[in-house]
Amino acid sequence: MMRAENLPRATTPFLGFARLLRRHAFAVAPEQVSGFMQAVTLLGPRSMADIREAALATLAPTPDRRDEFEAHFQSYFYGNTSAMVEGEADEETRIKDDSGANDEQIAAEQQEEGGELSSAMEQLSAREFRRDNDRLTAFRRKLASALPARRSFRTVRTHSRGKLDLRRSLREIVSADGDVPAPFLRRRRTVPRKMLLLIDVSGSMKLHTSDYLRLAHAAVQGADRAEVFTFGTRLTRITGALRIRDCNQALARAAAQVDDWDGGTRMGPTLLAFLSVPRFSAFARGAAVVILSDALERGDHAELQTAMRRLSARAYRLSLATPLAGDPRFRPATAALSAILPVLDDLVDGSSVKNLTDFILSLARPAPTAEAIWKRVS
Questions:
Q1: Pairing relationship of beta strands 346-349 and 317-322 according to DSSP bridges
Q2: What pTM, to 2 d.p., does this model score?
Q3: Which residues are CB-contacts of 61 (< 8 A; sequence separation ≥ 6)?
Q4: Does residue 136 share a domain with residue 8?
Q5: What is the 3-state secondary structure (H, E, C) of 279-348?
Q6: Average pLDDT in the 50-75 region?
Q7: Does residue 17 surpass a pLDDT of 60?
Q8: Whole-angstrom distance between the N-terminal and C-terminal Cα of the chain?
Q9: In terms of CB atoms within 10 Å, which end of the chain has fewer, N or C?
Q10: Which of 73-77, 134-138, 264-268 has the highest mean pLDDT?
Q11: Which CDD domains does this UniProt record tie to the protein (predicted)?
Q12: How far apart are CA 266 and CA 336, in angstroms?
């Protein structure tokens, strides 16, 4: 999203409306915001109806969210809060991107003792991570070479098992007066796939959040194309914070950015919000996606099922690591887990850092699907 300080003051309301839509998980690209402002300029505007038509034409809400778009327009430009969708204030999923985050570190102690129950109620709080030694050095060192690989469209020179580099071969033929002892070959490069970590920071995951964030920091430091998001009742991108080399400083920065530590969880809506932003959903395309969560979705799990199916279609490999699987008696018998099991490539034990690092370092190796494994266990 473009910065307001670089634009004329008259553009502030229109930029603010676009940001409002982004916060409510509308897919609004920067180019659409620019088009919206240009359309308003072309129309005059002579009335609020012109602004509304410009917004509809350029910001392009999907048909199923047209009523919600209209409600936001009425609320923002007219102050008509009665037009808001019923229940939206409690159920909205806010998205926070760390690309423009403040550099000031915020240290705050978490006094809440809960975390054993799963709920859908939002609770905003901060978190300070204790200063422990980094136990993930070996994982960080091995990660880049252990991730699944793909063939790039870029090529490199090779001496065998490649395709003829016709351009270079002809150039050498000309320079050597027709005498070339051997043809020149090229092959497509092999590069590691992207890695995407989605970390549940709700109250039911409180005992594991610190270890998961340290694992995420090691992943970002070890892999060039790793992305990390947290979710609870909100969605927050913390990749930028975790790029700080010092682990304790990185986690302090992440603690300042995430607002919904140890609160409720709305896993389905937050994952759908992630997929609704084109720039974010692109992170999942062809990536090894690992979700660190107990997947204790409250109420209807239809949104979770939809989100997981869409994630699976984009990802190279979709894995769910749940601390509940550390119990030998665990079975994916809840309605939510049963619904998403067919689209999961892996459902593994996420109760310890050792189990998680061993699993992530094995992602390049083929394995039976989660459904096949857990049917045998059952």
A1: parallel
A2: 0.65
A3: 21, 26, 68, 69
A4: no
A5: HHHHHHCCCEEEEECCCCCCCCCHHHHHHHHHHHHHCCEEEEEEHHHHCCCCCCCCHHHHHHHHHCCEEE
A6: 86
A7: yes
A8: 49
A9: C
A10: 264-268
A11: vWFA (cd00198)
A12: 12
- In Å, what is the CA distance from 354 to each residue of 56, 135, 201, 267, 290? 51, 10, 20, 25, 15
Q: Which residue has the higher pLDDT, 123 or 283?
A: 283
Question: Distance (Å, rounded) from C-alpha 235 to C-alpha 94?
Answer: 6
* 199 lies in the same domain as 319: yes
Q: Are residues 313 and 340 in the same domain?
A: yes
Beta carbons of 253 and 134 less than 8 angstroms apart = no
**The pair of three-digit structure tokens given for residue 198, joined into one six-digit string:** 């989605």
> In 3D, which of 159, 183, 187 has the Cα closest to residue 171?
183
Residues 365 and 277 in one domain: yes
Structural domain includes residue 280: yes
Handedness of CA 73, 79, 84, 87 (dihedral sign): positive
Q: Could you identify the residue written with the tokens 């609020």?
A: 48
* Look-up of token digits 């509304």: 52
In terms of Cα–Cα distance, which of 123, 140, 297, 112 is closest to 207?
Answer: 112
pLDDT tens-digit readout, 304-363: 999 999 999 999 999 999 999 999 999 998 889 999 999 999 999 999 999 999 999 999
CB count within 10 Å of CB 289 equals 25
137 token code pair? 């050095």
Rounded Cα gap, residues 254 and 106, in angstroms: 9
Number of CB atoms found within 10 A of residue 177's CB: 7
Beta strands in 165-316 (DSSP E): 185-192, 195-200, 226-231, 234-237, 288-292
Cβ-contact 234, 267 below 8 angstroms: no
Q: Is 62 helix (H, G, I), strand (E, B) or coil?
A: coil
Output Rg (C-alpha) for the chain, integer angstroms. Answer: 24
- Tokens 């932003």 identify what position? 277
Instruction: Give the count of domains, the chain.
Output: 3
Residues forming beta bridges with residue 60, ordered by sequence position: none
CA angle 23, 24, 30 (to 5 degrees): 55
SS3 377: helix
- Whether residue 262 contacts residue 203, with contact meaning beta carbons closer than 8 Å, is answered with yes
Same domain, 235 and 202: yes
DSSP letter at 39? H
- In single-letter form, the type of residue at position 292 comes to L
